[in-house]
Design a protein that fits this description.
Helix content is 14%, strand content 40%. With 555 residues, it is mainly β. It has 3 domains: 1-31; 35-121 and 132-284, Immunoglobulin-like (Sandwich); 290-522, tricorn interacting facor f3 domain (Immunoglobulin-like). Strand 15 and strand 16 form a beta hairpin. The longest helix has 30 residues, at 2-31. Residues 1-38 form the signal peptide. Keywords: Endoplasmic reticulum, Membrane, Signal, Transferase, Transmembrane, Transmembrane helix. This is Dolichyl-diphosphooligosaccharide--protein glycosyltransferase subunit 1.
Length: 555
């Protein structure tokens, strides 16, 4: 009895501590906004469109915004803030905001606006996907603090083109990709069984300024949905426009709402958190759930060989349901022969490579893997700044990989691929003028993009020619770390400088080019030939001296 009371006491104390922590974090989140409130903007409508896939989830938010009292902010309008749930923020990989239909812009214009993140993920006991239950229809517990993001809006968006016309609403489209939002349910299936994934999230979108009307639309990869549900409403939850149907399903799309008068987080964080309602979707997925646990890229630049050598080492994992029972090669072959459902098994993987890729290879720890097909394309300098997977099929090179064995749920496969690019002929390397001095600028793909595949950790090492100095880099996205080191290999005298770029939580949006600029004197171009000549001359001289040396003992 005493132990039971002690357990209840500790449980109550832990609950109280969690509520206090939530209150403190919510208060700090609001203080970060520096006075912004729902009075700054009127959010006329808020739409969340969520495309569920495998290891990646694509989300598009559409905010129809109206600035209150625009005459006060003609030259310096306030910053626009929005929220992401802790689960989305923790798995956030890529984000982009597009403004359209704003005042001062033509209807055909678009403006890409930078997004700032103000609150980093906190791991101090808050709920996460790792400890959340996977039972469909589970009651949502809003114990995680949302994360704050902001967008700087240019003043011209709120300037009148004609004095007699009102300023139209500004439409912000925020697109982003999150990783590992869906989990297999059940956790293990037999080789012949279908695969189902389970997703949970907010049915009512989080609105920092509140919203007159909001809606969440979820699109699954197939129309087959085992179940979809929404947690019970609380007293502060917004009402649905149609009280009889809070959720509707049409084909592969499930719509929650529309909701009327979503509470403002900036005015009352506790009320907004209490009004949250969870959506749960249990759906069939007809493709393997693949993740790249680690991607290491090694790039070497050679001006003498006009070559950009790229070598990738990939740690691949199938995140689908684990295999129940034993693996049968006969069943696997029959499923392929008769085109049966074998969606949770990875049999092949298509990689899109840049135009002009040549001499591709595919090896693992055993050696060369011949069960692959490489289709090269000629150099196309006009397409080098476009990610290969976004090019037409006849523009990008492709490497179709077939592993040595089918990859089932929970199985891993480690392998290496590599290819070469023409440095000058392919326009990957150019000479540019920087402050009146000639330098080299080389475009290097950060990673090989694979559609709908999460990359948990990526590292790219770019080895520059020996003697390179004044090294700078530019990347189209944020990097977690950048370091410089010396890479030494055969026939090097002082070693080659290298740049190491690292980033976690990557997706196919990070398959873009990073640019490395450096200075290389003319004498450094002849460093390698001079070293090779010196080595051969030393070997020749050593051989000549050895022939003159008498090693026999005279009698």
């Amino acid at each position: 009895m005493t132990s039971l009371r002690a357990a209840q006491f500790h449980s109550a104390r832990a609950t109280l501590a969690m509520l206090l922590l939530l209150t403190v974090l919510s208060t700090q989140l609001v203080l970060l906004v520096r006075g912004a409130s729902a009075k700054d903007y009127t959010l006329k409508s808020l739409q969340h469109n969520i495309d569920l896939s495998g290891s990646t989830t694509s989300i598009s938010e559409v905010h129809e915004v109206e600035l209150n009292s625009p005459e006060l902010y003609a030259n310096d309008p306030p910053v626009y803030h929005f929220l992401l749930s802790a689960e989305k923020a923790r798995g956030l990989s890529w984000m982009e905001c597009t403004a359209k239909l704003g005042a001062g812009m033509q209807s055909t214009d678009r403006a890409i606006l930078p997004v700032k993140r103000h609150l980093s993920p906190d791991a101090s006991g808050l709920s996460s996907l790792d400890n959340a239950t996977n039972a469909p229809g589970v009651h949502f517990q809003p114990t995680s603090t949302p994360h704050l993001f902001s967008i700087d809006l240019p003043p011209r968006f709120f300037q009148k083109q004609h004095p007699e016309e009102p300023i139209p609403s500004l439409v912000l489209q925020i697109n982003y990709v999150t990783l590992h939002q869906s989990e297999p349910l059940p956790k293990a299936v037999a080789q012949k069984e279908e695969m189902f994934l389970h997703w949970t999230g907010d049915a009512v979108p989080l609105a920092f300024y509140g919203a007159n009307k909001a809606r969440t639309k979820i699109r699954t990869s197939t129309p087959k949905v085992l179940s979809h549900s929404i947690s019970p409403a609380t007293g502060s939850s917004p009402k649905a426009e149609n009280a009889d149907s809070e959720a509707t399903k049409s084909g592969a799309a499930i719509t929650y709402g529309p909701w009327i008068s979503v509470p403002s987080f900036s005015d009352s964080p506790s009320l907004a958190l209490e009004s949250r309602r969870a959506a749960s979707v249990h759906y069939k997925h007809d493709a393997p759930v693949i993740s790249v646990v680690r991607a290491d890229r090694h790039v070497e630049i050679s001006h003498w060989g006009d070559n950009l050598a790229i070598d990738d080492q990939l740690w691949l994992r199938n995140d689908g349901p684990k295999l129940k029972g034993h693996f049968s090669r006969i069943e696997h072959q029959m499923a392929q022969m008769y085109n049966r459902d074998n969606s949770h098994t990875l049999n092949s993987l298509l990689l899109h490579l840049p135009p002009g890729a040549k001499d591709a290879y595919f090896v693992d720890a055993i050696g060369n893997i011949s069960t692959s097909h490489f289709r090269p394309t000629p150099n196309a300098p006009q397409y080098i700044h476009t990610a290969p997977h976004k090019l037409a099929a006849h523009r990008a090179s492709s490497l179709d990989l077939v592993p040595r064995y089918p990859l089932l749920g929970g199985w891993n496969f480690t392998f290496s691929i590599g290819y070469h690019l023409n440095l000058a002929k392919g326009s990957w390397g150019k000479r540019v003028l920087v402050d009146g001095q000639e330098r080299y600028s080389v475009a290097v793909p950060f990673l090989t993009p694979i559609t709908d595949v999460a990359v948990d950790s990526a590292r790219t090492t770019i080895v520059l020619p020996e003697g390179a100095k004044d090294i700078t880099y530019a990347a189209p996205f944020l990097l977690d770390s950048v370091a410089q080191s010396i890479y030494t290999t055969y026939l090097d005298s002082t070693g080659r400088p290298s740049v190491v770029l690292e980033r976690k939580a990557c997706s196919d949006h990070h398959g873009r080019n990073v640019f490395v600029t450096y200075k290389l004197d003319k004498k450094d171009h002849y460093r390698k030939p001079a070293v090779i000549t010196a080595v051969f001359f030393a070997a020749f001289l050593g051989a000549a001296l050895a022939r003159r040396f008498e090693a026999r003992i005279k009698t």
